[in-house]
Amino acid sequence: MYVAVKGGEKAIRNAHKLTAKRRRGDTSVPALTLEQIAEQLSHAVARVMGEGSLYDETLAALAIKQSRGDLIEAAFLMRAYRTTLPRFGYSQPVDTAKMLVERRISATYKDLPGGQLLGPTFDYSHRLLDFALAAEGEGGDLDAETAPVEDEPMPRVTDLLGDEGLIEPDPAADENAPVGDLTRDPLSFPADRDLRLQNLARGDEGFLLALAYSTQRGYGRTHPFAGEIRYGEVEVEFFAEELGFAVTLGTIKVTECQMINQFSGSAKAPPAFTRGYGLVFGQVERKAMSMAMVDRSLRWEELGEEQVAPAQDGEFVLSHSDNIQATGFVEHLKLPHYVDFQAELDLVRRMRGEWFEKRAREEAETTAKEAAE
Amino acid sequence: MIETTPSSTIAGDQAARQKNLAILAQAPAEILDQKFNNLTPPHYELVRQPETGLVMVRGRMGGTGSPFNLGEVTVTRCVVRLDSGETGSAYALGRDKTKALQSAVIDALWQRGEMRAEIEADILRPLSNSQTERKATVREETEATRVNFFTMVRGDN
Description:
The structure holds 2 protein chains of 2 kinds.
Chain A: H1 9-24, H2 34-40, H3 42-52, E1 54-55, H4 57-66, H5 71-82, E2 87-90, E3 100-105, H6 131-134, H7 157-163, H8 193-201, H9 205-216, E4 225-240, E5 245-264, E6 272-281, H10 285-297, H11 314-320, H12 323-331, H13 338-372
Antiparallel strand pairs in A: 3-4, 4-5, 5-6
Helix pairs in contact in A: 2-4, 3-4, 3-5, 4-5, 8-10, 9-10
Chain B: H1 10-25, H2 29-37, E1 44-60, E2 67-82, E3 87-93, H3 97-111, H4 113-143
Antiparallel strand pairs in B: 1-2, 2-3
Helix pairs in contact in B: 1-3, 2-3, 3-4
């Protein structure tokens, strides 16, 4: 007989109250403002916007504050919030060539047109803790240097190689072809590259990083070069039906990564570099690079390669990249499973009973046999 | 920069409006609020209440290829009609409904010929100038981080 039980309302209520108290911590320390989080923890905000798949800095700051800095929990809050809003439609594809670039580097061309602009980066730092930041005050000189700007176009590095035919071109854009949307239809396999890129763009940074690393270590060789990484603001345009023209909604910050990988070639096409593409909200270079490497390894079939490694397995990668889904399934184990467990308990008791019975029978048989001899 | 005059063509008007809406969308809410409150309070009705929703942002595979869905942004929009008949619209990233309403009214007032010069001089041009300035600062700061490579000369000994 199944008996429904309920209980714990008061315990839950009090646990949530306690969480609020612990979240606030020592009240003699000033509370964090959303502006402080948005301005000073911008990488955390970017990660939450990317994995929550919703670009809104203030909301992400609120989610980080509410989750006490648990960034997966914060991304979860963003995903839950977005379900409360109507969908106005789809933007025009952003044009990263027109980006207001804050950082642009290439590991393949020293002297590429537009140059190498380091921008704000942790690269080349010695990773020594800066105790000036721990002391009161701002910690050092906050005036960035400036230099007069020469207006020089900044072509994507893949366009440069493309001019010589040394690199595969972007897949021809069919503007009328339907574009898969994971927020409308659940993922099914095999997934086309549009769905794969959407999945990776909101995938877990740690998971993608580990997969990308695995391809470097020999589990599905892609031999990548960081052709170009650029970070900055792009305009988002939206076609407004009632106006009959596209309006600029504002700008968002994105990181774009073009990975250049080893060759493909066939009887029909000469050998050329292949590519992987990464595009993510905010300055999240590690993820943009990982995304580009995983995008490339998932293209094994199209490029006539052998499937030998986890990072090439679309179903494996795309089914496990979403940390909201993953955390839901792992963490649901904390919820009561009393009835499930009771059933298993009965089962294991019965199995043990049978096991002991069988052993006793075997022992008795052996004893009888020995006595007979 | 706003170069449109009341005598411009309809196509020119549309291009100018597009620019205006872009300027308003990117305006800081507090500054827009100040400027809006300096105007003679206009009479208008709401055609579409300020409303917050989502727009799915698209990127292109490899930068120039087929589109894919990158992730969503919050957007707030609004449509108003002045008592003189002009309809104004606003679309901007974020969830600020006051800003959307004020932007839509400003868009409508700009279309009313006699207000155009004032709207441009007092609101659009200053906003546009500070946006241009901000972008110039970003460019100049980034420029200072440009790498200049030089070739090492190998010693004789």
